[in-house]
Structures are given as C-alpha cells and as structure tokens.
Amino acid sequence: MDLVRQALEAGFFRATDTAVIVYDLDRLEANVTRLAEAFPERTGHAFAVKSCPLPPILSFLAGLGLGAEAASLPEIHLALAAGFPPARIVFDSPAKTVEELQLALTLGIYINADNLTELERIAGLAAATGVTPRAGLRVNPQAGLGRIKATSVAGRYSKFGVPLEERAAILDAFARYPWLEGLHVHVGSQGCPLDLLVAGVGAVFDLGRDIDRALGAGRIKTFDLGGGLPAGYRDSDTPPTPAAYVAALAERCPGLLSGDPALVTEFGRMLAAPCAVAASRVEYVKRQKGHRTAVLHLGADLFVRECYNPKSWPHRTGLLDPTGREKTGRIGVWHLAGPLCFSGDFPVWQARLPDIGAGDIVLVRDVGAYTLSMWSRYNSRQMPRVLGIRQGQFSVLREREEPQDVVRFWLGREKSV
User: Fold this and answer.
1) What are the tens digits of pLDDT across the range 77-112?
2) Which residues fall within 8 angstroms of residue 33, CB to CB, at 6 or more apart?
3) Which of 103, 321, 369, 403 could form a disulfide with 273 if both were Cys (CB 3.0 to 4.6 A apart)?
4) Taking the model in full, what pTM does it have?
5) Residues 6+ apart with CB under 8 A from 41
6) Is 21 helix (H, G, I), strand (E, B) or coil?
7) What is the mean pLDDT of the chain?
8) What is the CATH number of domain 2-22+274-411?
C-alpha cells in the first residue's frame, strides 16, 4: 500500500492513469540475493523471461549477474537487448526452428533440446557450420502432477522432453553425440509441492549417474534443474524458500550439490511475483441483491489465469481512498470486476474489503510474474503505466499505452498510423 501511496504523492500515479503496476526493485534484488546464497557458487541462475519480459527488469537482473532463460526467438532478442551475454542465455523452446538453432549455435547460447529429433537437427547444423554446440537434453522425469494440471509438466505424459522411461534411447543419444553435455528437468510451476520438485530432479540426477557410469565419469557437465518454486498468493501460503529447496535436494541427491557439474536454475515466479502490486481506480460501484461489485480498469487483460481459473490463482487485495490512504471500516464481500466484455472478467471474486466507492483505488498484490507477460489484447485495452521504485526513487519502466499505440499494434510494423 505504501508504494502506491508514494507513487501518488510523487506524481507518478497521475490523475490520467486509470491503473498502474509498481515494481519494488529492492525486494527483487533481495530475492536474487537469497537465491544465490542458497545454491553453490558454481550455479548459474537464469531468469525465466516468460515470467516478466519488461526490458528494464531484465536489464536490472542482468546487472545483478543473472542469466536468462528464453523460450522463444523474441525472448532471446529481449535477453540480448537487456545486456545478458549469450553465454548466460539458455534456450528452452520446444519448437525450435532451424533458423533459431543456427542463431543459438552462432552466438554460443546454451540449447536445451526438447526431443531426440531436435538433437539430430542440431548435429546436422553443427556439422555444416563447424560449431560445437553447447547443449543439454530435456528429460521428463514422469514424477507426477501438482494440484494445477495446466502448470504441471512431469506426468506420465507431457508435451515437453523425452520421457524418463525411454532410458535406452537417452543413453544412446549421449553416446552418439559427444557434444551433448547436459541434462535438463522441469517439474512445473505454481502448485507443485517441494517433494514433487525434488523427486523430479532426483530421478533425472539418477539418470545422469547412469550416463556417467556408462560413458565415463564427468560425461554430464551441466545439470539444469529448471525452476518451479511457488509464490505465496494467500496469507496462509508458506512457500518453500530456496534454502529449504537446496536442503531437500542435498538429502535426495547430495552429489548434485557437491559434485562437479555446473548447475543452472530457471526461476521466474518465485523471484518476481512478490515484487509488484497492481492498482486500479474504481470507475463504478454496482449494488444488487446479494452482490456488491466494483468495476476496475484491470481484468482478464492482465489477469488471464485468474479470471479463467480463479480457484487456482487467488490474489490478496487492499483498498485505498482516492488520496492513497488505506481505507478501514466494516469488512464486506466484494466482486472485483474487470472492464472486458465477457461474463468471467473477475480478477477476484468475493474479496473481503471495506466499503468501496467510485474513485477509490483497489490493490491486487503479487503481480510481478505471469501477469503483464500474459497480457490479452481482447477489447484492445491499453497496457497501464509500469513503475519501478529503487532506494526510494521512482522511474517509469514502461509508459502507459495510448490509443494510437494499440492501433499500431494491430496494423503491424509495415504500416503507420
């Protein structure tokens, strides 16, 4: 609440802004420090660009020494433009084209191949160009699903990776391609408990030991254990810390932490989600029998998952008056409705808040990851102004879109307004 009040007082949350998003960069740095201190020094931490692709955020993280995990060609270019050295970029797309692989090979970007056919493609490109790939293979540990199926990728079936049960084929691939040096595993994101994350990493770690035994000690030079640590969206949530994760990994697969392979992580949500708050002015209040509704300027455009699957994606809320002071008083149940033209456009159902009036400011917490990056163009709403605060000083990370910016988006780059 203090960040939004300060933004109002400093003139960064302007009267013309129907909504803003505020990132606490000091908290983001503290989360990075906490992560780095938990893991061995030889670990490279690659921030998941998909979770928050804002260039100023990416540049800030590059300046802190992080790498970047890219899941598409534009994410590679976002990482490069933000200042991440190619050697600290990990390319994880499950649908890499020949051209994309050529770029990654040329720049020296680390490639996590998603399947055995992709390895054949990489081998052909390497032979044609004379470039030795830096590459690992993604393996589905088949460890099970978390409570949110859509964000769990380690079931018996997954569209990602080579199933662990195809052990012989995986061993054959490492024997066939001497440049194939790493293993990659990712169990899932929000909704995956610590024991499931550890079980997935442990299963692929055991596979790595089998590869070392079959092909010689030190054959696995890089172990990418993905991301997946959850964020706490409810007051009752107690997500595991990086230190708790490392302690559990040490118990299940001690050689992973004390051995020689370089380690890579790909966290996004855990780092960025708690570091931002969205603030929307209330345009209208609607009261009808049994229901009180506050109409906001942020809805399923920003909160795609929250509106379509509210039980899995809750958010804590707060309420300020138009001047930025916290509102108090008798708590009631309010539906927070977005501005889009469909009936499911409710970022939060049954929020418990004091009495809301038009012009008040509703806060939605923990929006630093997988919100703005999933922005929907339905109804062609304008993206809000995005602010950052660092050591008490505000800056504009992304300016609010104007209508002509949205027109340009739909026209495409070959056209002009």
Assistant:
1) 999 999 999 999 999 999 999 999 999 999 999 999
2) none
3) 369
4) 0.95
5) none
6) strand
7) 96
8) 2.40.37.10
